[in-house]
Amino acid sequence: MNLISRKLCFTLISTAVIFAGCTKKPRPTPADTTATGPVSSAINPTSLGNLTDQTAAGLQPRPEGYYEDADTIHGLLPSVYFDFDKSAIKQGERQKITDAADYLKKNTQYRMLLEGHCDWRGTSEYNLGLGDRRGQAVKQFLQTLGISMDRLQILSKGSLGAAEKGTEEQMAKDRRTDFVILKK
Question: Strand pairing of 152-158 and 111-117?
């Protein structure tokens, strides 16, 4: 057999194999793709009742800024805010610390990290010291409420994360101590 005959034979056999294996499948009609019969009757919206009333009754919305990981819970308890360049706890902020103490008394397996923050004004060193004094003030208040010192830690963040050259309202939100719940 010469070369042309071999190529022609190979081409014919290949084409026959390809076309023999390809059969056209029928396309489904729209009626075939909709759920009918017992499938649709399994879910009956009227038999479910009002789910929002049943599920929302026992749930509490989480505070804004709440997040949780394997080791910590952030934002569950509201922050304690301070006046400019001060570490004294304002009268209106003391209930937040009392609530934090109540939480720790009910959840004895947890400890708490007190993160002291400042606004952007001042040097880094000064703001780290002020953040530490704010955390210490909250820690001392918690101790007067019966929380053991070994369950409390302080971390000064200074002006880290503060809104630089922010408005007075933004800067007031930066002057705070955050409660971070430590699970381990």
Answer: parallel
Strands 111-117 and 72-74: unpaired
- Dihedral angle computed from the Cα positions of residues 149, 106, 72 and 65, in that order, rounded to the nearest 10 degrees: -110
Q: Residue holding tokens 């071999």?
A: 6
State phi, psi for 113 to the nearest 5 degrees.
Answer: -105, 130
Strand ranges, E, within the chain? 67-68, 72-74, 80-81, 111-117, 152-158, 176-182
* Domains within the chain, CATH numbers bracketed: 67-182 (3.30.1330.60)
What's the whole-model pTM score? 0.67
Most confident of 44-53, 105-114, 163-172: 105-114
